Amino acid sequence: MPKGSGHLRRSEILSAAQQIFADVGYEGATVRRIAEQVGVSSTAIYLHFPDKQAMLLEIAFDALQPVLAEAKAMAADKSIDPRERVRRMMIAYMKTGHDHPRSYAMMISDATREMASAEGPAHEIMAEYHRNFRGLIQELEVQDRLKGKSAKVVSQLMWAGCHGVLALMQASPNLKWAPYEDLRDGMIEMLLTSLVD
């Protein structure tokens, strides 16, 4: 069966790239290796992507879209107490980072690089997630339920705490970590208890 072209070929490239990134890591992956997996020349890959970073970023963007959609839905659901919505958004964020570690790391890395220009897909997806999250924290601020800190400080502390667990576990996978769910739930509970009434 012949390989696809256009949009289908692009999907084949991303599928092959995702598998190779998973098998040998970002550093071990090469455009040539991805091209061989798809059954095309390296030149054909460059018709769709300028480099392997662009491939990984698109994979990452696709992996993180569900957490953004969930964040938007959660932020909009006024029938649930905002403290509970904050808890659920942190769980969704950490689940995505844990389930897609390379995509998550790539998004964080690219978002950080893009901060100076305040543009780019990674920056936008992280900024949109944070806008929804901070909106919930502001709801709690309006209800006078933040413990002596501004919504900006609380939202950033919560994000930093969640990211810290993910980043440490991913950076040092050989340490004898407690079960991920225990660390996730413990961090979230500690943040909520110390910052929100």
Describe this structure in words.
This protein has 197 residues and is an all-alpha fold. It folds into two domains: 1-49, Orthogonal Bundle (Arc Repressor Mutant, subunit A); 56-195, Tetracycline Repressor, domain 2 (Orthogonal Bundle). Helix content is 77%, strand content 0%. It has helices at residues 7-28, 31-38, 42-46, 52-76, 82-99, 101-114, 121-142, 151-171, 180-195. α4 (52-76) crosses α6 and α5 runs antiparallel to α7 (121-142). The longest helix is centred in the N-terminal third of the chain and has 25 residues, at 52-76. It starts with 6 loop residues before the first helix and ends with a helix. The mean pLDDT is 86.
SSE layout and pairing:
Layout: H1 7-28, H2 31-38, H3 42-46, H4 52-76, H5 82-99, H6 101-114, H7 121-142, H8 151-171, H9 180-195
